[in-house]
Amino acid sequence: MSKNLWTKEELIIAFNLYCKIPFSKTVKENPKIKELALIIGRTPSAVAMKLGNFGRLDPELQKRNIRGLTSGSKADIEVWNEFHENWEKLAYESEKLLAEKRGITLEQEIELTEDDIPLGLDKEKLIKTRVNQYFFRKSVLSTYENKCCITQIEISSLLNASHIIPWSKDHKNRLNPQNGLCLNVIHDRAFDKGLITITPEFKIKVSSKLKENNENETIERFFLNYDDKRIILPSKFVPKEEFLQYHNNNTFIV
Known about the structure:
This protein is mainly alpha-helical. The chain is 48% helix and 6% strand. It has helices spanning 8-20, 31-40, 44-55, 59-63, 74-85, 87-102, 106-109, 123-143, 185-192, 208-211, 217-222, 241-250, and strands at 159-163, 180-184, 196-198, 204-206.
């Protein structure tokens, strides 16, 4: 096979990286693109171009008049569709292929040690779950450029990839980056408990449970001051309105 033709494995690995870096940083100078190019034996320019090919398929970029490259292949479309139809399967597969190319194990990739595995727990199942959670976190935080979409806090250790529809409620979309928000730990907890929500118009809505404490300076500073303000939207994988509507209807405490 000609080296100019990308294999399916290479495309799956490339899409993994597409998920993990902002589209504005899909340039050949990016260290992550250089690393991937070295791993799969291609040039940084070729990898950056392939991510641009994926960008042309992203409807969220098109809505914001951000255009990917006009060229591409049928294989790009097939991999794009496979990920969107089965995020859980392809996310795990892409992480596994990437680890193999790096010559390490999945445990090493996600920094999982034997001490992290409770006695009697299915090791393979735990690894798969951790790998998937790792992919989701990396994808969500990167598309928000590692900044909380409410406060713009950008300390990674204080940020979570928050599920809009809970992990246990929607198997198909549990790893879909469009089912995620980058939130600091306080607002993540409040969102999870329904004390705040994000409307389909991307506005923050505060629950009456918090508004009852309007004389509390901390509540006012962390919550009430953000009521009815828009979140900062990500560079791609903008939250789906139907997911936000679900949270409004099923999790949020009016």
